[in-house]
Write a sequence for this structure.
């Protein structure tokens, strides 16, 4: 392969690696500025500033309609490099739990469970549950935060607890929704 | 100053060593199988998840509207639906056709039929689905996009594909093959380094509490906590092991003496994640990427054809 052609490939490689490292750094700085880490709280301002610098390098501080930002963001998505790799890091967060209570015409009450990170997904999940239990007349979706026990707490009998946040009632007649909060 | 041209030469040699296409065959077959499994896992819910409006309160239209705020250039199923509407196809028909094409492209990649076209089609359709259903996509979609992106740009077809056997086309440039493998290798090193680094920063990975929490956290709580808690003394060891394994990846995977053990440990870690947390597709795609990037180098034949030592540049 000709040397000039190799140089073109190397330039592409350098650009690709720059983008991957910048995106990963930006997300790492964001985690450091938002999460509980081994660094002192006072360092969070520095991490925020570092995150802003990385975002600037990626064109994320340009107006949304700016063509350069649109193209760069588009490329990041096409290559699958738009997000960092901090899976379950620096800590594993508490999760949320959505319980569906199914009420049948004969008075039976059944329960099934699902997950949702956003309240707006509740309706979609409720509809999915309905497809599996089409004879139910109402569905109550109860959304809450799951509090996980530590291993020693688990040994002493403490189990996963459940903090109620919202409940959504769906009726079969018009699929209307009523929401109640704690 | 005299060292600069020498350094440049070494960099060029490092990025363009002679390479066989075994790694590309592993990547093609592995990602082909991944695409097939991905499509089959979504078979019943494909139209339901990706309908523009109607079935669900969260529609594809909403996901795509949010996507448009980020960039207009990201592929989405809405493009295909609009195109289909112009020639008289209903949305359901277009979505079902997209699923069939995705499954077919996965099968074609597996066998190596029209390898380049199949790789592009698989990348495009998977990306469309993942971006249109952004609310329900997760890490596996990112890694599939990464793998398919490199696969479609790599010098296909490889010698194990039906394309090569049927058409008797000539072999690909071994240096170009090596270059694309290098990109995948560098990318994996960055992935594991940052993944390990961010874990090391959290106190929960050093005392094992994050391992415990990850395993009992819904929906990953496949194993009964009553069984898990018996192994609680292993959690700190496992947490530290995962941190060191990930952050050490870019340093130990290049050395021929530590490469084998590091690769086996990383693959074992992903296998463990797949089995204990139910993330089967995620585990599989990670193992495929790792084996393609560093696995085929373990065989004796590969070691003979490749070297990290500088060699004379060919211009």
């Amino acid at each position: 392969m000709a040397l000039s052609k190799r140089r073109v490939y190397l330039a592409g490689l350098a650009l690709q690696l720059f983008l991957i490292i910048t995106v990963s750094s930006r997300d790492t700085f964001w985690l450091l500025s938002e999460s509980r880490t081994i660094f002192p709280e006072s360092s969070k301002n520095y991490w925020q500033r570092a995150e802003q610098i990385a975002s600037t390098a990626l064109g994320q501080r340009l107006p949304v309609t700016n063509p350069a930002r649109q193209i760069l963001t588009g490329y990041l998505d096409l290559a699958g490099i738009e997000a960092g790799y901090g899976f379950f890091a620096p800590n594993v967060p508490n999760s949320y739990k959505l319980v569906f209570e199914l009420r049948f015409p004969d008075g039976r009450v059944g329960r099934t469970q699902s997950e949702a990170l956003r309240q707006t997904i509740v309706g979609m999940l409720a509809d999915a549950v309905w497809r599996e239990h089409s004879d139910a007349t109402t569905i109550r979706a109860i959304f809450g935060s799951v509090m996980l026990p530590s291993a020693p707490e688990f040994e002493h009998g403490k189990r996963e607890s459940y903090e109620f946040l919202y409940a959504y009632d769906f009726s079969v007649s018009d699929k209307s929704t009523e929401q109640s909060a704690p | 100053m005299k060292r600069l041209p020498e350094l440049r030469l070494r960099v060029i040699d490092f990025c363009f060593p002679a390479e066989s296409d075994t790694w590309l065959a592993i990547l093609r077959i592995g990602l082909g199988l991944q695409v097939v499994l991905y499509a089959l896992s979504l078979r019943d819910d494909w139209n339901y998840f990706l309908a523009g409006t109607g079935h669900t309160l969260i529609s594809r239209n909403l996901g795509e509207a949010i996507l448009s705020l980020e960039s207009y250039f990201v592929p989405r199923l809405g493009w295909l639906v609009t195109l289909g509407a112009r020639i008289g196809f209903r949305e359901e028909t277009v979505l079902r056709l997209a699923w069939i094409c995705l499954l077919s492209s996965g099968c074609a990649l597996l066998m190596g039929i029209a390898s380049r076209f199949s790789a592009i089609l698989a990348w495009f359709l998977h990306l469309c689905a993942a971006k249109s259903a952004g609310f329900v996509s997760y890490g596996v979609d990112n890694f599939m996009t990464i793998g398919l992106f490199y696969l479609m740009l790599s010098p296909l077809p490889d010698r194990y594909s039906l394309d090569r056997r049927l058409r008797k086309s000539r072999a690909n440039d071994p240096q170009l093959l090596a270059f694309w493998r290098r990109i995948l290798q560098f990318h994996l090193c960055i992935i594991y380094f940052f993944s390990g680094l961010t874990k090391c920063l959290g106190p929960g990975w050093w005392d094992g509490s994050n391992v415990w929490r990850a395993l009992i956290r819904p929906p990953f709580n496949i194993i009964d906590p009553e069984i898990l808690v018996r192994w609680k003394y292993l959690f700190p060891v496992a947490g530290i092991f995962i941190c060191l394994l990930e952050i050490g990846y870019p340093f130990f995977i290049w050395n021929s003496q530590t490469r084998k053990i590091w690769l086996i440990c990383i693959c074992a870690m992903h296998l463990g994640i797949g089995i204990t947390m139910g993330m089967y597709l995620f585990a599989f795609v990670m193992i495929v990427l790792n084996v393609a990037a560093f696995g085929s180098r373990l065989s004796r034949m590969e070691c003979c054809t490749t070297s990290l030592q500088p060699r004379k540049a060919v211009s």
About this structure: Residues 146 and 184 of chain B are 9 Å apart (CA to CA).
